[in-house]
Amino acid sequence: MSSWYCPCCVPFDFDPVDVPISAGYTRPRKPRKLFPGACASSPVVEDGEKEIQPPPLPKGQRNVIAVGLQRFAEGTLQPQPDWEQLTDRVVCVLAQNPGSFTLNGTNCYLVGTGRKRLLIDTGEQHFGADAFMNILSSCMEELGVEGLDGIVITHMHHDHYGNVGRLQDKYGPVPVYSRELSHRTSPLLSELRRRGQIQHFLTLDGKPLYNPKVDGKPPKLPEDVDISWAHDRVKHFHGKNTEEKLHWIFFMTWHHQDLIDRLRNCEYPWTAVDSGDTISTEGATLTAMHMPGHSDDHMTFLLEEEHSLFSGDHVLGWGTTFIMEMKDYMDSLRKMLHMHPVSLFPGHGHFIEDGVDILQRYISHRQMREQQTWEALVKRKEPVRIDVIVHELYPNTVPERLWMARSNVEVLLRKFVAEGAASVFVPSWDGRLRRMRKLPTGYDVRHLPDGYLWAARRTVPTPNL
Q1: Mean pLDDT throughout 60-89?
Q2: The Metallo-beta-lactamase domain covers which part of the protein (predicted)?
């Protein structure tokens, strides 16, 4: 499956357990209902499955990385305030986009101490945008902040870059800082153009014909438009059928490409940042660090004055994140840990006061899941399909969730191959197995074909090639 979309677009059924709001300036609000379809959290195990036990939790600390049924406990996620002062230099403004991925919503951070400040991440363009902009304006007014020195994007997922345009309209021109943007056109848009079908998804003025967050049903495609080629690529998306799902993905992808084009064409002032680059405002200096894994362009930012990290979607204030490349992700976690950050400001969930502790727990959690997957693979004497491993590790998962379990296992098998510990084979027409020399990354191809066979290299002799 081509990676047409970010993880934000994939709905997981996820009901987090209650967590305490961190101490500090708060504005009480009613518990929020969670909506499907926004960004980073990922389920781990179900009831009856092999349980991973995390390291003992120090007394007085909350279990941020929940496992088993704790992840799906009944109840409502403890709310975060619309905005709160976390430290002398950092204010969290909650984007009003609660969801199964975004928890209470995307955390957007005003950083600095002056009348102009940096804003890290911007919330969702099509969900909660007006409410977010009003709350941000009220927050800035109460704090005596008159404008923005810059907009900093941790990664190009739509719940993080969504309101760049609105912010430019209100406070601009404001410099935008992000990782270097891809020069490639979206694979989905390219495929639709190649097939001569893109016009069926656009209005006469070149915008998406269907807005799934506003319109009731998508318009019907002409009967002679064959979209069967897209069926497997869209099967995990919102919608009742391939046509409706394709309209949904097209809408999100078009807006993503539109922002990239606006930045590249200098409609908004934009600067690409890489590891070691700094962004400054009165009272605060951010040092950028490229930390791929959740996405290939993911950046974290060190607040030098407090030696604390804005962790984006790599580390969350509750639960664990969605991962596209496990090897990159683990490398990034270890780099973050080596910095010994005092605290973490996550992209979703509550402020993390002990940065080192949570990073150690994230690493331990992933290592235990990796060990379990490796043991299931290494004991087999012949190459095996991924579904065999999935059913062993997730024996009681309901069928509609098995694709999530498969995704969890696949990112680990890809990691084993990347490290040289495992091989992957493709059956040929003559019944022989052909070993693949190199796999596409999870950033490029989200899910590999079902027919691939996997083997630990130290236990399985090379099959007949």
Answers
A1: 62
A2: 105-348
